[in-house]
Amino acid sequence: MTEHPTSPERGRPGAGRPPAPADPRGALLRTPDQSSARTSDQSSARAPEQSSTLPGSAALPVQARTGDLTGDMQKTNCGKKGPTGGQDSTGSTDMPSSPSSGSASSPDTGAPTPPSASPASEHSQPSAAEPDPHRPRPAPESLPAQQGAAQERPAGSPGGKERRTGQGLPPGGPMPMRRDGDRLRFVGAATRRIARGIDLDEIVMGLCRATVPTFSDAILVYLRDPLPVGDERPTGPLVLRLRRTDRIPVERDTEGGFLPAVQPEPSDLSAMTAELCEVRPGGALAEVLRGVRPVFADAPAARAALPELLGDDVFVPGGQRAILAPLRGRRRVIGAALFLRRPERLAFEADDLLVAAQLATHSALGIDKAVLYGREAYIADELQRTMLPETLPQPTGVRLASRYLPAAETARVGGDWYDAIPLPGSRVALVVGDVMGHSMTSAAIMGQLRTTAQTLAGLDLPPQEVLHHLDEQAQRLGTDRMATCLYAVYDPVSHRITIANAGHPPPVLLHLGGRAEVLRVPPGAPIGVGGVDFEAVELDAPAGATLLLYTDGLVESRLRDVWTGIEQLRERLSATAQLTGPDHPPPLEALCDEVLDMLGPGDRDDDIALLAARFDGIAPSDVAYWFLEPEDAAPGRARRLARRALSRWGMEELSDSVELLVSEVVTNAVRYTSRPVTLRLLRTDVLRCEVGDDVPQLPRLRQARATDEGGRGLYLVNKLARRWGATRLSTGKVVWFELNRG
């Protein structure tokens, strides 16, 4: 039986021999070389194969031939009794002796066995148990170390020695790869494992796990620090950092192998070698890295380069038991890998340099791509982080919490956003929106819409007007720029909330007693449609209630429609509120986590933005409000009203400062207004004073000259107040200041 003409062994000596059977554990033993002529092969005896092995025997079924010119060989035949061999009653296999070695002993009992009855004819049909040599064998995913290898020897190896080198096989170690087919299968399995990695650590780990212990007993991977990204030109000297090491476990490495002169603690490779290595320009290590091709450690160039890489106290086994392989990416060398074998294991062969080169090439290209992917992920994360508020404000009368989840780890950016914008009069605008898609383009459009919403909120426009201007802005960005948005304004003084919706899922209000309801707001058309009107509704916002704004990724997926998800959200909020009792609302942060826990494995089809607002409000007893006629007596009346309010609140120590600042601000308002001026005092954690008029021009702080009669009012406000500001309204403006409570 000859080998198939397309075999990778074609053209090599002994290519006509049959393929060696595969070991069930992945290693492939080499059949003995046949240098005799075809006529000698045709007259050789064939030992029948058996489909099952003997109990307690680890030997593999190997086809053997007589007439070997290289010396004596033992023929191992594990199997049932065939047409050309016999088997005794104890289960030992017939072992015919070679002409020079006499009788052989059974591998189990040691008893001599009779020779085979007769050799099989060249044209005889193979037995039913004999495998078809032309049937392709499945390639193993890896070639692991063989267990109990002390009982196994390659066929044709007298005394358990390797034919080519005459060295003994190591006990308990992996069997060597003896044929080119083994190496091809190993390289294929190893490169597939390396290619599975998507980031830097996964690729380096795949290289280590694929090579130890199949190809080497240990590996050290050095990478450039820092790694260049894409076409960047690295600056500074070339520095290699030990990125990862791997080796056969300590319990299997009892013979020592590669250890430093004094073993450190802990006894791992990272502690034995230098973590950083600066490559000297023109040095031996630089020459090896520039050469790109892997070299044996006993080569002259590598012999001088290894101490520079590892340090002087690390012992590297000689005799071609170490390979130094540079890692070259798309543009430049980015590191090096060192493959090591123990002294008692068979040395590397020349063909193993090709294997190391393939592993190094695939790993380096994968590392290059992983670095580029990491840079893109970093840019996406930074873009998304800057598009969303870094921290939420802490307005008076409301507490806020938020969450954002991307659609997937591979899609870190999206078009969902949320925002909380403080407004005049202690009000706050709550915004949540969703641009179609979750890509860099969606994130860019989202950022523009969010900036527009903040600008419109600063003008104190009604919610429906804000959505109208957002719709116009989306149309200016493009005809296919669609988004949904919900804009709400909460007033803690009146305990009311005004909501306008543009095609967004409705909010859910969780009451203090545990009842959750879906607010009925007009759905409206999405932003970007154009030519539609938006409607706003005003609803009660009782103290202790929690308003939940969210995007459709929380309630809609491939497994459920949006209304089913909204109902599940409502039930989850009610169940969570029951845990804390009717008089205590659940903590906001824990409530957000509970809401996100309702997502199942198949419910993450879109990114999610979540904004929760707990309405505390401002009690009516903490608010004082007056109208002042625009006349010369208004500042004096404002001082008297402020003094009475502070006396009622027990804050007499602030009377002097408040009277002075109120008098200055009211004087400025009365000077230019034609309608009544409003004065409001709010007692919260600070004392806040607000003066409103119908003049839209905002006051500016300026330095008055010594001869000026006026212009010092805002200067006093700036010096005495904790904070102050002026906000333009649709009906005029509001000038406000805050003072710390005593």
Automatic annotation (TrEMBL):
It comes from the Bacteria. Residues 398-615 form the PPM-type phosphatase domain. It holds the Pfam family SpoIIE. Residues 89-111, 118-130 have a biased composition (Low complexity). CDD domains: HATPase_RsbW-like (cd16936). Residues 1-181 are annotated as: Disordered. Keywords: Hydrolase. SMART domains: PP2C_SIG (SM00331). InterPro entries: Bact_Sigma-Reg, GAF-like_dom_sf, HATPase_C_sf, HATPase_dom, PPM-type-like_dom_sf, PPM-type_phosphatase-like_dom. Residues 1-12 have a biased composition (Basic and acidic residues). Residues 32-55 have a biased composition (Polar residues). This is Serine/threonine protein phosphatase.
